[in-house]
Amino acid sequence: MAKTAELKTKVNDASVTGFLNSVADEQKRKDSFEILKIMKESTQEEPKMWGSSIVGFGSYHYKGASGREGDWMQIGFSPRKQNITLYIMPGFERYQGLMKKLGKHSTGKSCLYIKRLDDVDVDVLKELISESIKFMKKQG
């Protein structure tokens, strides 16, 4: 019987503030603390570290098509070297109107990539985060 690979990115007790303070790029560090504040207001949850480099809020249980299941954050972000990655778990299909108004960004399946907060409309970003959270809370 094949053993499913254990998910490496798990919630842990590492310090979110300590992690964000360790971000070398000053602008990225400042933007990260602002995103932290926005997500905290939207989720009404305390942030947790997921793995060594992702700040996540809330959690939900998923079961994939492959039968793999586990727990994952409802929303989160990571200040990566190239850009700040925001994890918008429902993806972006249902948010086309918001995405058009957001500003300079790129996306992956559930990843929103921005270079800096100044590149996007923060009010639109707040709405995207808020709508994503509402959707994820309905998923249980």
Can you describe this structure?
- A hairpin with a 4-residue loop joins β6 and β7.
- The mean pLDDT is 92.
- The chain has one domain: Aspartate Aminotransferase, domain 1 (Alpha-Beta Complex), CATH 3.90.1150.
- The strands form two sheets. It has a seven-stranded antiparallel sheet with strand order 1-2-3-6-7-9-8. A two-stranded antiparallel ribbon has the order 4-5.
- It is an alpha+beta fold and 140 residues long.
Rg from alpha-carbon coordinates: 15 Å
The averaged pLDDT comes out at 92
Oligomer: single chain
Q: Would you tell me which CATH topology applies?
A: Aspartate Aminotransferase, domain 1
Report the CATH C-level class: Alpha Beta
Strand content: 15-25%
Q: Give the spatial strand order of the biggest sheet.
A: 1-2-3-6-7-9-8
Keywords summarizing the entry:
140 residues, alpha+beta, Aspartate Aminotransferase, domain 1, 7-stranded antiparallel β-sheet, two-stranded antiparallel ribbon, 9 strands, globular
Secondary-structure map:
Blueprint: E1 11-12, H1 16-21, H2 26-43, E2 48-50, E3 54-57, E4 60-63, E5 69-72, E6 75-79, E7 84-88, H3 96-102, E8 106-107, E9 111-114, H4 122-139
Antiparallel strand pairs: 1-2, 2-3, 3-6, 4-5, 6-7, 7-9, 8-9
Helix pairs in contact: 2-4, 3-4
Give a quick summary of the entry.
The protein is 35% helix and 24% strand. It has four helices and nine strands; from the N terminus they run E-H-H-E-E-E-E-E-E-H-E-E-H. The chain starts with 10 loop residues before the first strand and ends with a helix.
